[in-house]
Fold:
Amino acid sequence: MVDQVQGGGVPTKIVVGTDGSATAQRAVGKACAWAKAVGAELLIVSAYNNRAPGGVAGAGVSLDSGWVAAAHTVAEKCAQGAAEEARAFGVATVTPLAIAGDPADVLIKATVEQGADLLVVGSKGMQSTARFLLGPIANKVSRKVPCDLLVVETSE
Structure:
């Protein structure tokens, strides 16, 4: 039965998300360990908001391209920093990605578009105020992701 599964069930392409927080770093660390152990490619994704916060447009304030560019730059630096750490850890193939959108949607999109067979997420996000069994990102992707999902315990 195992040899019927592509790759024998061992992941060959892993996606992990980061926002630079301590909890995200734990998930990235686990993804690095897996990628190094099995020789998988690692894609480190950082999402950023390219839409005005609620109420801003109604107040007559526009979200200019400079703000979006700054948000992209921050996300890009976050993903690149994590990628440098992954390479230093010994992961052979690492790709940092900064993608606009809701973090859960971005992770799902990256997993599908990149053909990943494992998504690694943290159990709790730093941005969540209502924490139950899973953080909002882990909860959302667990219902929609089309590959294996590793939820890393990241609560403090």
Summary: Residues 102-156 form a domain with the Rossmann fold fold (CATH 3.40.50.620). The radius of gyration is 16 Å. Confidence is low (pLDDT under 50) at residues 126-133.
